[in-house]
Amino acid sequence: MKKSGEEEMKKSKAKMVSSGTSTRRRGKVNQSRYRTKTKTPVDVEESFSESSTESEEEEETPDRRNEPNSDLPSEYWQIQKLVKYLKAGNQTATIISLCAMRDFNLSQETCQLAIREVGGLEILINLLDTQETKCKIGALEILKEISRNSQIRRAIADLGGLQTMVKILLTENNDQLHCLAAETIANVAKFRRARRTVRQHSGIKCLVCLLKCENVNTVNMTPEIKRHIEVARCGALALWSCSKSTKNKHAMRKAGAIPLLAKLLKSQQEDMLIPVVGTLQECASEESYRLAIRTEGMIEDLVRNLKSTNTELQMHCASAIFKCAEEKMTRDLVREYGGLDPLVSLLNNRDNKELLAAATGAIWKCAISKENVKRFQELKAIDLLVQLLTDQPEEVLVNVVGALAECGNDPNNRMAIRKAGGIPPMVNLLTGTNQKLLVNVTRAVGQCAEESDNMAIIDRLDGVRLLWSLLKNQNTEVQASAAWAICPCIEHAKDAGEMVRSFVGGLELIVSLLKSEEKEVLASVCAAIANIAIDEENLAVITDHGVVPMLARLTDTMDDRLRQHLAEAIARCCSWGNNRIAFGQEKAVAALVQYLRSQDENVHRSTAKALYQLSKDPDNCITMHEAGVVKLLVDMVGALDEVLQEAAAGCIGNIRRLALANEKAKYA
Questions:
Q1: Among 73, 71, 93, 77, which residue's Cα sits nearest to residue 16?
Q2: How far apart are CA 391 and CA 591, in angstroms?
Q3: Are 606 and 565 in contact (CB under 8 A)?
Q4: Residue 228 and residue 425: Cα distance in Å, rounded?
Q5: How far is the C-alpha of 93 from the C-alpha of 7, rounded, in Å?
Q6: What three-state secondary structure class fits 70?
């Protein structure tokens, strides 16, 4: 019976191949006959937080089906016949049909749709529940290939295929089945609901278990060791897809994925390293993973693999460093292991935009440390970065100007940026709309403006006007960054007062930002107002716009950074008209006295300056004395900071002179 069944299948297969041309002539199919199974209700959406990479969630694409009147290739009809044999055939016929189907080019959309439209997906998923291992392997081989299609993978999830594949990982003891199930999960888990399904059915724990692989770098590779390594690779692939979900990252950590990934990172095999590093760079958005990557000694391995010849591996390593280098200790380790040199060398890959984005991002974060900036200077990184300011995607530009902003903390680098021709393209970027890019480019322009020669170029290119216009941006980060950048522009411009007055409505705009609820915006605007108030005419204008009551209203803040710049602005504004009297009437004086109790010396300095100016009004002196200012200022007269000493002594002197005048008046 078995033999006759096989012969019958061979005859049927031959008949199908020979009839391929005639079926193509028929050319049309009534699509109403074929419908995929109705979607099963999905679980109620649970509350979840997704990582930043969830923005890459694949969009709902139109449900692609072949048009009823379109000509279809012979493969379409042959595959549909094979699916019918899968439905009706015995075990032998099923295996032969699966093998025959596997021989087609399943990467072609026509073949994928042929399987789907005749109900083949349901049959393939049902075969995963059989007791026959060969049927499971054959079905998974096909599902693995066709699940690269976004519509197919959604259909697999709807039909409960993920739950069945997780069950295979749980119950089967077959390495080939584990590999195929994990690879198919890797393909299907490209969208949020699929990733959640894997986690809810204990799939994360099963996939982490696949990572357990001994002798990952053994010299004598036996077939068994190779098989175990392949299982671990497939497990890493699946976890890579699943790791785009924040809850999955937590589940992976709880299941013990970190030490296993650290061990696999020692591998010399690139096909193993790519999914492992890919998973790590996805997870590095979480602080717990960044800490683990550093403490488990993975930074050294990431740096080592930066020197690989595989650009995909380099890209993932650079991306992982980009995310991990938020911490100073990690930045130091990257330098100590020699990671800065290969990062700079990657800047020469101008055509590979993904690699360039990862490398520039890593350089940006590493440049936060001054020691790393020195090495970048030696490697001529500034010149390479400036060359990337044009003809690059915004993802690269954000990182490039971020790196230049950090390097610009060093005066020598500001000069290097100018000599490399970096200022004009950076000023041009101020006209963009990308919020992250605007935040970074305003910082970079602000750093460059610290040099008078650079400021002359910025002014000539109308850069200050562009910065001022960004104060109207709806994004508070852009507003704050623009206001900070305006400060050095005013300080180093040749005729700053006239320049500021030339901006129609500019002074009114910057005063209006004192109504903001964001502390960073308020601090940056106060700093800008302190610079604007140096010019008497501008100070008169902002006084007319109500700057005094608006500054006084902010004095109850507990934020030391805001306190510092607010007190500086108040000190500068006191020099016009009756402003110092108005500050007293607005109840700002007693609040300022409390600033002297701060632990920040910068707050002490700016507050002492403000109190000195305010103490020139007798009523303010009385208010200060009642608030206990004398004892606080006496302690500061002996400070090492000369500006603080002088301001504190001047304020005490004014209070003392008022007291003496009162004494004389009493006994006159």
A1: 77
A2: 52
A3: yes
A4: 53
A5: 10
A6: coil
Give helix 370-378 / helix 328-336 axis angle, nearest 10°.
30
Determine the residue type at 170. Answer: L
pLDDT at residue 339 tops 80: yes
Look at the block and give the residue holding tokens 């109620």. 44
Token pair in block for residue 223: 């077939």
Residue 84 has φ and ψ, to the nearest 5°, of -65, -35
Of the candidates 481, 493, 570, 548, the residue with the CA atom closest to the CA atom of residue 518: 481
Contact assessment for residue 637 and residue 597, using Cβ atoms and an 8 Å cutoff = no
DSSP string, 488-540: HHHHH-TTHHHHHHTSTTHHHHHHHGGG-S-HHHHHHHHHHHHHHTTSHHHHH
CA distance 437 to 429: 8
**Residue in this structure with the two tokens 């002297």, named with its chain if needed:** 596
Measured CA to CA in angstroms, residue 37 lies from 155, 231, 263 at distances of 9, 32, 43
492, 532 in Cβ contact below 8 A? no
Residue-wise pLDDT for 262-321, tens only, equals 999 999 889 999 999 999 999 999 999 999 999 999 999 999 999 999 999 999 999 999
Tokens, residue 504? 């129609």
Those residues whose C-beta lies under 8 Å from the C-beta of residue 468, and which sit 6 or more positions away, are: 482, 486, 503, 506, 509, 510
Residue 664 has what DSSP assignment? Answer: H
pTM recorded for the entire structure: 0.85
Query: Directed axis angle between helix 311-324 and helix 328-336, to 10°?
Result: 140
Angle between helices 203-210 and 246-254 (to 10 degrees): 60
Cα gap 629→40, rounded to integer Å: 73
- Do residues 499 and 459 touch, judged by C-beta distance below 8 A? yes
Q: Are 285 and 51 in contact (CB under 8 A)?
A: yes
DSSP of 468-488, one letter per residue? HHGGG-S-HHHHHHHHHHHHH
Q: Which of 313, 53, 354 is nearest to 189 (CA)?
A: 53
Tens of pLDDT, residues 13-58: 444 333 333 333 333 333 333 333 333 333 433 433 344 444 445 5
Whether the Cβ atoms of residue 619 and residue 576 lie closer than 8 Å to each other: no
- Assigned token pair, 59: 């969009």
The secondary structure of residue 42, as a DSSP letter, is P
| Mean pLDDT confidence for 58-75 | 56
| 3-class SS string, 155-212 | HHHHCCHHHHHHHHHHHCCCHHHHHHHHHHHHHHCCCHHHHHHHHHCCHHHHHHHHCC
pLDDT for 95 equals 85
CA torsion sign for 81, 86, 90, 94 is positive
Taking Cα atoms as reference points, which of 628, 629, 663, 633 lies closest to residue 645? 633
Which backbone phi and psi does 173 adopt, to 5 degrees? Answer: -120, 50
Name the helix (H) or strand (E) containing 138.
helix 133-146
What three-state secondary structure class fits 61?
A: coil
